[in-house]
Amino acid sequence: MTNARRPLALWFGAWLLGLIVLSTALGPMLWGLPVDQMDLAARNQGPSAAHPLGTDQLGRDLLARVLAGGRISLGVGALAMLVSVALGTAIGVLAGMVRWLDGPLMRLTDLFLSLPLLPLVLIAITLFRAPLSAAFGPETSIFVLVVTVIGATSWMPTARVVRGEVLSVMGRSYVMAARSTGTRGVTIATRHVLPNTRSAIIVSATLSVAAAIITESTLSFLGLGFPPDFATWGRLLFDGTAYLSDYPGRALWPGALISLSVLAIVYVGDGLRDRGDPRNLR
Amino acid sequence: MTLSTTLTGMALGTLMALPLGAAERGADGEVRILYWQSPTTLNPYLSGGIKDNDAASLILEPLVRYDPTGEMIPWLVDELPTLENGGVSADQTRITWRLKDGLRWSDGTAVTSADLRFSWQYCTAEGGGCAQVAKFTDVVDVETPDPRTATVVFSKPKPFPYGPFVGAQAPILQAAQFADCLGTRAPTCTEANFAPIGTGPYRVKEFRPGDVVVYEINPEYRDPWKPSFATVTIKGGGTAEGAARAVLETGEFDYAWNLQLSPDVLLRKQARGKGKVISAFGSLVERIAVNFSDPDPNLGAARSTAAHPNPVLSDAAVRRALSMALDRRLLSEIGYGPAGRPACNLLPFAAGDTDPACLQQDLEGARALLDQAGWVDSDGDGVRDKDGTKLRLVFQTSTNAVRQDFQAVIKEWWRQIGIETELRNIDASVFFGTDPGSPDTMQRFYADVQMFAGAYDGTDPENYLASWTCGKAPTPENQWQGSNVSRWCDPAYDAMAAKMAVTGGIDARTTLAKAMSDALVENGVVLPLVDRGRVSALVHDLGGVAINAWDSELWNIADWHRIKN
After folding, report:
1. Are B26 and B38 in contact (CB under 8 A)?
2. Angle, CA of B98, B102 and B106, to the nearest 5°
3. Cβ of B422 and A242 within 8 Å?
4. What is the value of ipTM here, to two decimals?
């Protein structure tokens, strides 16, 4: 019934996401204006040929800032997703395959799920900012910190979904057959379990990219996270809200890009799940 | 500065022009004033709110008011008592006030020194919860040798004895009306608190707390020609934005108070042509404080303590260069618009003798100064260094849109003179919080420079200036409590502060205060940026207004009038 539309969603999502990723990756090279260049004579200007999205309250080009901000936001999203999916998959597979680990690992998952994440993230940033900053410099350190913190606090849904899939796969007759022939657990995991839980992992991965982008924006929006002069979408949105009634574009552009990226990623995830689901092929 | 001087000039001009115009008392009808916070009582002793104090100032008056420049002017007395004229005793423990002749309350009875004595008793009565009790600190008695003379006696020498009965917060109450309202009974005297009998140009006609106050002329007011308006309405409630619209765009109201709006919003509303925006400057100065100690995290517990001088900012040339690279005019314009003016000094009354060079950004000069001091870019990375130390600073402030803009602009200017800046912003409740356990408070100052605003409460800068003395530096030993966040320590400055504590006489104190403020600025302890003021709006045909940040905004409402053309 919806089969005809679903590939469309996938293609639309992939196309939109590709466009956003490409333009943020190549944009700063093609659009030559530096991110931090201030032109105090050209403050608060509307869209023009020189500044297609206008300039902000310090005369910085908004297009350049949005493009540069996307690099950080998408970068944080992708890396945090890797951390969270790796953690979640490992915990889910272990819980599903090793019976005596199941209880403790799932209680740990419940524990993390019941923690209020935002305060936890704020505390982590307050505690670790200074030592990391000394080690990596202010910007890299906060990038590492944000990625780790988001990744380490968002693996729980993945772990739960993966465990469920693993349990159902473990009950299948071919896994029992493999077991009875003495195949080692690691081999069963890589040969049988992981391929069969692939679509669940991909879906959680896309969802966690979306969640990570939003968490990073929230942190920047709260004035934490990256230094104030460092453009990310969340930071731009935060700065833009002060001017919402006079220059709505300031907040709308980064806000729309956050929404569009998340939407595109969710579409891609949705489409991939449908593709990977063998029942859909019929 | 120019705006407020013109306004004062205008006010003085109208004062002189008024008798010629022969405007009759009450000839101008009604004036409508909008306070977006509503007055809830008309007794300033029971409320610390500016809205309540302002609304009461039409009725209740002090002996002395502050004018828009912060100078004291005799109000219900003919002469300000000083050491020179003998009004203040030589040991500085007694100040003698002599009331104007023929002063009457609005009910027709005479104002006497007993009313002064009563006002002191009222505010210091046990359980009265007086909001202005600080004004009467150290007062042990108010003697009343005759009906027009009152002597305030202090328990110890007071170099600045102008606390009691000075300014809008400490006016005189009528003893007869409030006699039964002492102590715990004070808040229960609703009738008296909502319609006090006063000496001011108006008396209450109707008061609905939290909504509106309607005033009519006090028939006993001492000047037969004033006030010009027969009735005054103060309407309360709404938002600053709505208040600005009601005056500047629709003209429904004549005056709107305290418009905390962004500069471009105000200017756009002003462009509609109905009225204009006016500002008054008190002592609130946005500034950058320089850390004289080393905030290096590797120092552990000794971080940001006087034991380790700052490797970069201990050099006076660097501090001077940081200041020279600032364009204060531009900062004031982008950040505060009509509510700001560039500041080169911490004390507003010293603004007149500002060094004009300070207002001029001098990037070339700053570079030359750094070159001379030996800070050169030896490895070509755009950042100056000397003996292996890079000119790198951490610049922190609270989270606030204007402050982050200032940070970005200042970082760029400092980059142009070869200084690299790392910006940090901290939530205001943490930054200004006093939690000794938090590493991010302004007292801890784990950065090289930080930006915030500071002020003193408008009477005398002694305590304010004393906050930069050596003993006031926050340290781990005093749980990081202390006002000298720069950890600057100069015996010469401490000596001036000690002298200030015993110096009497207004002129001598002013001279000393200026010298202390100059010492702070010249030594680069603080880099003043913008003098922040209060903004109100009025319609074009309202005359006589002289907005005042030191006293009630409505302090001279008796002089307000309608401009006819």
Report:
1. no
2. 110
3. no
4. 0.71
Say if the Cβ atoms of A228 and B440 lie within 8 Å: no
A246/B265 Cβ within 8 A: yes
A57 touches chain B (CB under 8 A): yes
Q: How far is B263 from chain A (nearest CA, A)?
A: 11
Of chain A, the percentage scoring pLDDT greater than 70 comes to 94
Q: Identify all chain A residues contacting B263, using CB atoms and an 8 Å cutoff.
A: none
B405 vs A contacts (CB less than 8 Å)? 57-58
Mean per-residue pLDDT, B453-481: 84
Total domains present in chain A = 1
B5, B218 contact by CB (below 8 A): no
**For residue B164, pLDDT beyond 70:** yes
Summarised one tens digit per residue, pLDDT across range B92-105 is 899 999 999 989 99
- Judged by CB atoms closer than 8 Å, whether chains meet at B422 and A227 is answered as yes
- Specify the amino acid at residue A107: R
pTM (2 decimals)? 0.78
Q: Which CATH number fits domain B1-59+200-274+540-565: 3.30.70.2860, 3.40.630.30, 3.40.190.10, 3.30.450.40?
A: 3.40.190.10
Mean pLDDT of chain B: 87
- Spatial separation of the C-alpha atoms in residues B460 and B455, rounded to whole Å: 11
Chunk chain A into consecutive blocks of 10 residues (it has 282) and report each block's average pLDDT, rounded to whole numbers. Answer: 62 91 84 79 81 85 89 90 94 92 93 85 79 75 87 91 91 89 88 86 86 83 73 85 81 90 88 72 48
Q: Say whether pLDDT at B5 is over 50.
A: no
SS3 B33: strand
Distance CA B7, CA B559 (A): 13
Q: Which CATH architecture has domain B281-533?
A: Roll (3.10)
Residue A37 included in any domain: no
* Out of A134, A228, A242, closest to residue B423 by CB: A228
Instruction: Print the domain residue range for A126.
Output: 6-27+60-276
- Residues B306-320 have a mean pLDDT of 93
Q: Could you give the residue range(s) of every CATH 3.90.76.10 domain in chain B?
A: 64-180
- Chain A, residues 19-38, CB within 8 A of chain B, namely 36, 38
Query: Does the beta-carbon distance from B404 to A130 stay under 8 Å?
Result: no
**Separation between Cα atoms, residue A240 and residue B67, nearest integer Å:** 40
Please return the burial class of B48, using the count of CB atoms within 10 Å of its CB with bins 0-12, 13-18 and 19+: exposed
Contact A239 B401 (CB under 8 A): yes
With CB atoms and an 8 Å threshold, state whether A40 touches B409: yes
- d(CA B229, CA B561) in angstroms, rounded, equals 6
pLDDT 10s digits, A38-77: 887 777 888 888 888 888 888 888 888 899 888 888 999 9
- Assigned architecture for domain B64-180: Alpha-Beta Complex (3.90)
